[in-house]
Amino acid sequence: MTAPAKPLPHSPSPGDAPGSAGDALHRPVIAWFDAHARDLPWRREDAGPWGVMVSEFMLQQTPVSRVLPVYEQWLARWPRPADLAKEAPGEAVRAWGRLGYPRRALRLHGAAVAITERHGGDVPTEHAQLLALPGIGEYTAAAVASFAYGQRHAVLDTNVRRVFARAVTGVQYPPNATTAAERKLARALLPEEEHTASRWAAASMELGALVCTARNEACERCPIAAQCAWLAAGKPAHEGPARRGQTYAGTDRQVRGKLLAVLREAVAPVPQATLDRVWDEPVQRARALDGLVADGLVEPLRGGLYRLPLT
């Protein structure tokens, strides 16, 4: 078994002070980002904090190419949280379309209601206030605070975790779930100055999305290839627990998606018989429908009718 490579002498380790060894990574990565960052609508100044928040909900486990059209339609229809809060939650599910993981739509609607009721319709600026909103966890709170308000927070998505795992700890892939050691490392790497920290958060995420990808990484285009512990060690293969795959065909997720597709297109409540036609296997179909009801994505009515939720 090949031991993971140790960090290179000039690469930061979890114990390094911010602003010291980390500078060797900050400068080239941020310079690369300045030259190569994609022009995405949520990065533009006119997106505002609400646009950033919407993008963070939509981008979870979903590629940018699928998010872009839905994001544009969403912001055109609901340019402020209060606009979405006025609508029934089922309308958020309907507008979510085929992005997948539709509970995110309900959570975003719940956050819009809370922002309207608690913060006068403005996305709060404080990390603790963001974290207190329904449906917002540590990652989303840190991302909105950093990308919308330029604050200093460690923003750890899958792309960032992969960059840190390779460049600093010398392994191909991060653990399946974020660990305390990863959080400690991210804090150690965080620049002291707020603006630089927020740029670093966006830049390291973009590097993982475009260059240090999960497969077919482009090390020849990486601005920190010379400092990468994994590359220096000969790119040793992953030796940890098996990475989780995302299957879809034949799963309850697929059945749920088919059931929701019928309800999104409907202008009136849908009878059970119509839903029964979307999937032949009755036990799995019933389980998927029961799950949608339990998650608040579908509302059952008398007479065997179903619709998207109104409350």
Could you provide a short overview of the structure?
With 311 residues, this protein is mostly helical. The protein has helices at residues 23-36, 48-59, 64-77, 81-85, 89-96, 103-119, 127-131, 138-149, 158-169, 180-189, 194-210, 229-232, 252-265, 272-276, 282-294, and strands at residues 270-271, 299-301, 305-307.
Question: How does this structure look, described?
Answer:
The chain has 311 residues and is mainly alpha-helical. It folds into two domains: 1-246, Endonuclease III, domain 1 (Orthogonal Bundle), CATH 1.10.340; 252-307, Arc Repressor Mutant, subunit A (Orthogonal Bundle). The protein contains 15 helices and three strands. It has helices at 23-36, 48-59, 64-77, 81-85, 89-96, 103-119, 127-131, 138-149, 158-169, 180-189, 194-210, 229-232, 252-265, 272-276, 282-294; strands at 270-271, 299-301, 305-307. It has a three-stranded antiparallel beta sheet with strand order 1-3-2. Strand 2 (299-301) and strand 3 form a beta hairpin. Helix 9 (158-169) packs across helix 11 (194-210). The longest helix is centred in the middle third of the chain and has 17 residues, at 103-119. The radius of gyration is 22 Å and the shape is globular. Mean pLDDT is 91; it is low at 1-19.
